[in-house]
């Protein structure tokens, strides 16, 4: 079956005439020309669907065509309407048409197509909670404006306004965790090289992780972490993570873990902690060891004030550091590599 034949057969399955006309206009007039143009470049039109294998040329053509059509301005999809919220051919509608069409193809003629992998950007999400969670992750990677977010997620500016307001004011609370966005002004040169203005950018310091773990994995994330943490340079942080995971478990799961610990004769205990996002600054405000983990992670240059007990003198090292073991760090200072015991450190200065 060719791509063109598949479109015709799929449209024949639609019963609602209004929906059929709308879908036909999109698939035949907007989407298929994009696929055809790309396939003809590789002399692959008509495109045989049964020959398509993941990551081969034909598969890449389909994946790229989906990305292209979802990047088309909504006004181009229906010239007769200006209001995006009432436009029957919004990007979300286009996504729904394409997804339903490829579901039909996968079921009828090519079970190896794996349509979920064609939608590699994953930008159009099915509900607001999914989108807000994805926004938090996206903004940790790259600060963006509201207009950029609306374009990225293929929704109206009004929808993004609501998402950002909720995330900035109330935060997103899911499975006991609450995270918020932060806002900053940046200079922009939109409108020309001589035009500079301030724009609001939104960013996130949180990366929510929700793991569907089996009981063995849960045991490793609680009792296992507690064992690994003993005497390690990351002891404080690992213990808190283990307590955090444990606090979110059911009583049934807690009993299984505790019974296993008791049978081993291990001295492991857990604290009930509130499952909430810990801001880095607050996390290490009174804990030099956790502060050192932050500096190692971020690779920020720091001024390390310490007192050398061998000389009795206060000294300073300036550079990037790494934690070598639970007792000492190494500092790259110009062409030197300085070893400093953690117990010697009195103060750390750096720009957050």
How does this model look, in words?
The structure is a single chain. The protein has helices at 3-12, 17-41, 57-70, 74-77, 91-108, 115-118, 128-141, 146-152, 157-169, 215-229, 235-247, 251-264, 280-283, 288-298, and strands at residues 172-174, 177-179, 182-188, 197-203, 302-308, 313-325, 328-333, 336-341, 345-349. It is α+β, with helices and mostly antiparallel strands. The protein has a five-stranded antiparallel sheet with strand order 8-7-6-5-9. The longest helix is centred in the N-terminal third of the chain and has 25 residues, at 17-41. The N and C termini lie far apart (59 Å).
Number of helices: 14
Strand order of the largest sheet: 8-7-6-5-9
Shape field: elongated
Termini Cα gap: 59 Å
Beta-strand residue percentage = 15-25%
Q: What is the H/E order?
A: HHHHHHHHHEEEEHHHHHEEEEE
Structural class: alpha+beta
How many E strands?
9
Give the arrangement of secondary structure elements.
Blueprint lengths: L2 H10 L4 H25 L15 H14 L3 H4 L13 H18 L6 H4 L9 H14 L4 H7 L4 H13 L2 E3 L2 E3 L2 E7 L8 E7 L11 H15 L5 H13 L3 H14 L15 H4 L4 H11 L3 E7 L4 E13 L2 E6 L2 E6 L3 E5 L3
Antiparallel strand pairs: 1-2, 3-4, 5-6, 5-9, 6-7, 7-8
Using brief descriptors, characterize the structure shown:
Arc Repressor Mutant, subunit A, 4 domains, alpha+beta, about 350 residues, 14 helices, about 45% helix
Short description:
The chain is an alpha+beta fold and 352 residues long.
